[in-house]
Amino acid sequence: MSSDTAEGTITPVRRWLVERVAYYVEMAPEDIDPAVRLTRYGMSSIYALSFCGDIEERYDIEVDATLAWDYPTVEAIAGYVMTLLDRPAEDPEERPETTH
């Protein structure tokens, strides 16, 4: 059994990430190796920031602007995103009150 199968939804996450990287570096998704550093494909800092925004929007999570440097491959980013998606939702009782 592959690690993708064992980890459940990491494959769709990884696939989507590969597609986004391919878009930014103007390559075919099948030419993106998830284990290769994004900088090897020419991912610029501006594209990396846009990529972070794409991830936040797609998965409704917050990621640091340094994500592509902290997790330099699609494989690493997919693993990190999965840890965020596996976290339980914030308990509304623990949220600080906001004033309007």
Task: Explain what the structure shows.
This protein is mostly helical. The protein has one domain (3-86): Non-ribosomal Peptide Synthetase Peptidyl Carrier Protein, Chain A. It is built from 5 helices and no strands. It has helices at 3-6, 10-25, 45-59, 67-70, 74-86. Mean pLDDT is 85; it is low at 1-7 and 91-100.
Core attributes:
phosphopantetheine, disordered N terminus, Non-ribosomal Peptide Synthetase Peptidyl Carrier Protein, Chain A, phosphopantetheine binding, mainly alpha, disordered C terminus, 100 residues, single chain
Question: How would the blueprint of this fold be written?
Answer:
Blueprint: H1 3-6, H2 10-25, H3 45-59, H4 67-70, H5 74-86
Helix pairs in contact: 2-3, 2-5
Tally of separate helices: 5
Q: What does the largest sheet look like?
A: none
CATH architecture: Orthogonal Bundle
* CATH superfamily caption: ACP-like
Uncertain parts:
1-7, 91-100
For the termini, the CA-CA separation is 52 Å
CATH topology: Non-ribosomal Peptide Synthetase Peptidyl Carrier Protein, Chain A
Q: Beta-sheet strand percentage?
A: under 5%
- Provide the helix percentage: 40-55%
What is the helix/strand order? HHHHH
Number of strands: 0
Principal-axis shape? globular
Structurally, the number of domains stands at 1
Structural class: mainly alpha
Average of per-residue pLDDT values: 85
Kindly provide the name of the CATH class: Mainly Alpha
C-alpha Rg (nearest Å):
15 Å
Protein name: Carrier domain-containing protein
Keywords: Phosphopantetheine, Phosphoprotein
Pfam family, one: PP-binding
InterPro entries: ACP-like_sf (IPR036736), PKS_PP-bd (IPR020806), PP-bd_ACP (IPR009081)
